[in-house]
């Protein structure tokens, strides 16, 4: 059996946390031969609820769960951690402007970025789930100057999985027949779900659907799926978000299959004409614990416009939080 790795999860007593922790402990994220220590971070008033979650984790008697640390101190939570899933965030309250939301989250992700900088493993893999995920990841990364910026990623994998599922349903195929969709840009309504390079059962996806369905149904449905879930369930996506977080980390840690890519929100270095620095959804392949952007994809005029629009939103978000960078 391998040596245990340390996995920090913030917002551990929340609804995504409740769907996420048991799967990490069961080995779904890092494999059936990788024991884990769970470092669970919550705000002080939620420590009681966290104790309940911990009791349930213990009651599962998971063979791979080595140890649980519960804390309200980020310095303890991120100590020597190899993986960090930043789920806890400030929810949008009624009447709150996006700008206020961004700043309020800066109060969480700035200090957490600093604690990661000061205490985590030097090649920690950080996934930000808490919204606005891309810009929260940027705030954390900007407060961790001693770490490689590539340690910080944001989750667009739920959108990626939603796109796969909707394309499968439309074409009468199974999810496993769908390869290489892309979510470009922000995890927000400006995200661009792109099927120009996707395949269904090994054949180009785009000619298998009509243009009107692609532009007027598929793209808005993927963009608005979160709102549709809230309307139907009366609560935001939780199990599917947790599942996507597991997928993101598993791909990053264990690799992507040959010839296939996944979508990850990662620091742009200018690929595909995107503003350097913003955390942007790109098609990525992963190998040996590292990710790389898939280069050289042909971008048509339609895609260019959509990719630039979501880039513009991320630049605006960055401008609203720049004062929070260390
Ligand atoms: P919940 O409100 O159920 O749970 C959030 C938890 O975070 C709470 O237990 C809270 O006490 C804790 N928390 C707040 N501030 C904290 C801090 N400073 N340190 C540690 N813990 C803290 O929300 P949940 O449904 O679990 O969603 C969590 C976040 O995921 C939200 O921001 C949500 O918007 C976001 N989502 C992101 C998605 C994505 O694809 N990137 C999709 C799903 C989800 O909407």
UniProtKB/TrEMBL annotation:
Its EC number is 1.1.1.37. The gene is mdh. GO terms for molecular function: L-malate dehydrogenase (NAD+) activity. It comes from Henriciella barbarensis. NAD(+) binds at residues 11-17, 105, 112, 129-131. It catalyses: (S)-malate + NAD(+) = oxaloacetate + NADH + H(+). InterPro entries: L-lactate/malate_DH, Lactate/malate_DH_C, Lactate/malate_DH_N, Lactate_DH/Glyco_Ohase_4_C, Malate_DH_type2, NAD(P)-bd_dom_sf. Residues 157-322 form the Lactate/malate dehydrogenase C-terminal domain. Keywords: NAD, Oxidoreductase, Tricarboxylic acid cycle. GO terms for biological process: malate metabolic process; tricarboxylic acid cycle. NCBIfam families: MalateDH-SF1 (TIGR01759), PRK05442.1 (NF003916). This is Malate dehydrogenase. Substrate binds at residues 92, 98, 131, 162. The active site is at 187 (proton acceptor). Catalyzes the reversible oxidation of malate to oxaloacetate. Residues 5-148 form the Lactate/malate dehydrogenase N-terminal domain. Belongs to the LDH/MDH superfamily. MDH type 2 family.
């Amino acid at each position: 059996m391998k040596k245990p790795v340390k996995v920090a999860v913030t917002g551990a007593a929340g609804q995504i946390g409740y769907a996420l922790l048991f799967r990490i402990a069961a080995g779904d994220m890092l494999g059936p031969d990788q024991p884990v220590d769970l470092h669970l971070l919550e705000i002080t008033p939620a420590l009681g609820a966290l104790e309940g979650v911990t009791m349930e984790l213990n009651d599962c008697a998971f063979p791979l769960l080595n140890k649980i640390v519960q804390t309200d101190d980020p310095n303890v939570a991120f100590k020597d951690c190899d993986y960090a899933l930043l789920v806890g965030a400030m929810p949008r309250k009624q009447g709150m402007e996006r700008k206020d939301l961004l700043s309020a989250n800066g109060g969480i992700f700035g200090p957490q970025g600093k604690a990661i900088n000061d205490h985590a493993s030097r090649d920690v893999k950080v996934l930000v789930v808490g919204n606005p995920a891309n810009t929260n990841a940027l705030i954390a990364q900007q407060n961790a100057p001693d770490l490689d910026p590539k340690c910080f990623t944001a989750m667009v994998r739920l959108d990626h999985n939603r796109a796969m599922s909707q394309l499968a349903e439309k074409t009468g195929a199974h999810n496993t027949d769908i390869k290489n969709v892309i979510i470009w840009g922000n995890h927000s309504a400006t995200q661009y779900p792109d099927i120009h390079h996707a395949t269904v059962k090994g054949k180009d996806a785009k000619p298998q659907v009509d243009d009107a369905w692609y532009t007027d149904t598929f793209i808005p449905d993927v963009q608005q799926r979160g709102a549709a879930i809230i309307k139907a369930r009366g609560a935001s996506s939780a199990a599917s978000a947790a599942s996507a977080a597991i997928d993101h980390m598993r791909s990053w840690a264990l690799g992507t299959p040959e010839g296939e890519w996944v979508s990850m929100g990662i620091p742009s270095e200018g690929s595909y004409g995107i503003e350097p620095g913003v955390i942007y959804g790109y098609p990525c392949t992963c190998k040996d614990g590292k990710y790389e952007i898939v280069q050289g994809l042909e971008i048509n005029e339609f895609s260019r416009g959509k990719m630039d629009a979501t880039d513009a939103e991320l630049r605006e978000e960055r401008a609203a939080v720049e004062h929070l960078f260390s």
